[in-house]
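Exercise 7. Predict the joint structure of the components listed below.
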Amino acid sequence: MRVIFSPRHRLHATETVTIHGEAYAETPPRAERLLAAAQAAGLGPVTEPADHGLGPILAVHPADYVAFLRDGYPAGLPFRHAGPLVMADTFHTRHARRRPRHPWSQQGYYSFDIQAPLLAGTWEAAYWSAQCALTAADAVRAGAASAYALCRPPGHHALADQAGGFCYLNNAALAARHLQAGAAAARVAILDVDYHHGNGTQEIFYTDPSVLYVSLHGDPDEEYPFWWGGADEQGAGAGQGYNLNLPLPKGTDDARYLAALDRALAAIAAFQPAWLVLSLGLDIGAGDPSALGGGFAVTAAGFGQIGQRIAGLGRPTVIVQEGGYRLETLGENAAAVLRAFTG
Ligand SMILES: [Zn+2]
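Solution:
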């Protein structure tokens, strides 16, 4: 299985970033662990992404938002923290009456939380992370059974025009639209197994019946991203019925997770997609530090089962790396899923 990886992820150098005094969880060693594990598992070749330019990115994200990501650092810097990052601390809310031009305000307009600061290299890293997803989509569109986009930063929390939750550009959405390019009627299913609901992906396709979004995740009544992820969110307009949320309680173990996954896979099989995009978050693993007060308890064996059942759909699959923050088990769990697609 081809692995698409860009060393430019390191330009999003978050190692020294803290939020509320806590170390930022989405750091460069994550991607390095994942790469090492993929190579140790015999996956490959590992290749750098092709540069598709901004065109495919602008098919999902509006130009003003993309310009903000590109130029927001250093434009907001003089008005913010003395440190090397730009972070919002005032937000466009449902009561806002105007859209000011001050760079400080732009941060709060184009992000929905404080978990997606802009660093000097954030734009370049996010750009190449997106190119990884697009290149993996190229490979699958050209006939590969699967390809793994080792994206960093991740993408599934990014809305069309708002960053948040460590995410800037929605890599899974970009892959889905890229798969459809030239074949707009083609159906794409996105299966999101990250511990957190992929609010960005859901919202991007919420009214679109050509893309089925299915997510298993921590119940938003007790877990980030809070404002999205309920079972009652089922799409709207023409997209009604094409959004399936399966929120699960804390402590969910292999058996409970796999039972919910079978429901998700049945819905995808009924949709009969031409392609599958798998938003592969590994933070459902036991002990992941991103879960608030303890999350799921999926084991390495559980990850192997998850991989086998998804691969069992038999759909050409673009695998897009999302979250997963427990460095000790990240690589092992990723390899357990990915190996299922090579068998
Ligand atoms: Zn997550």
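Discussion. The mean pLDDT is 95.
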